[in-house]
């Protein structure tokens, strides 16, 4: 079972879009068994997969705060399984402030659950909070979505720093790849930043570039992945390609 966290503390860089569509590509095209864990109080990944975040019996908050077994919180969406999130996750940093093994809660819950999936994909919140720390401790690889805009690299040093520090708790933690999202090839700035990312991340930068596409932005409002919403769109083709790259990684 491979675990991948989709993380970047910068907001709105397409973490959720990438988590949902990479997970869906793996399930629908790759025919893999996939679990998506939503680790953001916004619950956007949960909603994007057609689930009503306010009608969930359990969320990942129950796992982290009340020791509810992870398997009990799994719900089935169309093509993959989901551990959902909603506002119950807000304020979790305060609740976990005095918990000694707080960074290990998700890792332990996953271990105890003895899951039978090919891939577990985790959608992180736009912060380096205890939730994101839990994801980074529980995962092996991290995929970082980045928008090719000014300030793109700002803050990335903090994420890389956090990843390096957490290798003390989780020696297997590594940056699996960096993916350029919402790319507009006509913009000179995007081209410049893209070149800068290639320079900075080298081999870690995925060749696949996710183009700006209105279809990708529309799909969540129908509770569908891009493959169910419009499988011939350029966004669908791009996330299919990204899946191939991810599957091809050693
Ligand atoms: N390739 C794309 N083309 C056009 N719109 C996109 C694309 N990818 C994402 N979006 C839109 O951009 C917005 C931000 O994307 P998303 O929610 O995936 O980012 P995020 O990093 O998860 O945000 P947050 O930090 O709030 O969790 C959303 O409205 C989404 O639909
Ligand atoms: Mg998000």
Automatic annotation (TrEMBL):
To B.subtilis soj. Residues 1-174 form the AAA domain. InterPro entries: AAA_dom (IPR025669), DNA_Partitioning_ATPase (IPR050678), P-loop_NTPase (IPR027417). SUPFAM superfamilies: P-loop containing nucleoside triphosphate hydrolases (SSF52540). This is Sporulation initiation inhibitor protein soj. It comes from Moraxella caprae. The gene is soj.
